[in-house]
Amino acid sequence: PAGDDLVRRWAIGDGTVASESGELELFGAAGAGVPDDVDTVAQQCTDLATLVLEHDRSAALLEYQANHDALTGLPNRALLLDRIGEAMRRRERSGEVVAVLFCDLDRFKEVNDTFGHEAGDDVLIEVAGRFRQAVRLHDTVARLGGDEFVVLATWMNDEGEVDALAERVRDSIVPPFRVRGRDVEIGVSIGVAIVDDFMTDPRSVLHAADVAMYRGKP
Fold this sequence. Notes:
Blueprint: E1 6-12, E2 22-27, H1 36-67, H2 77-94, E3 97-106, H3 108-115, H4 117-134, E4 140-145, E5 148-156, H5 159-172, E6 177-179, E7 182-184, E8 187-194, H6 202-216
């Protein structure tokens, strides 16, 4: 309809997210008034739509919080296990190499003991960022808690690629971390488990990587 036919417009949502806001427009003859009952119904519709959008946002936030680490924003154990299971099922069809890298930080306790837990949290956040830069876009970096991280590597061609990825992850935290004006060096012990036909579920894969990590930990 022509612009001069617009009688009334109601905003829906708060406009903070484009896909979750909009407008309800009522058109009619130019100069015509809007009956009170129509105005009331239209306002009720906008109020209901706003409530639905707020509910959807709340549900999405709760789902995100249930599946991600509060400190780093990385996937948590629940989401990691789900993705490992998905990769295991896909491997049966594609034959791809799927690997799990269990990463435990070395000398991190010294950071907490020397500089405090707030400084330790800052280091964990930076570690998370460095790990994400070291892996490929379709790999998953997760935090299990404390100083334990896991990388799920999918669509690998062979074990050589897995070894190269583990080296990149290890090398990513070689540069010192700046903590309270001082350079602090930490390391990482990595255990690798490559999914095979004998691993029956995601937890068995994660456990195998965990065992491999402790065997190699200094």
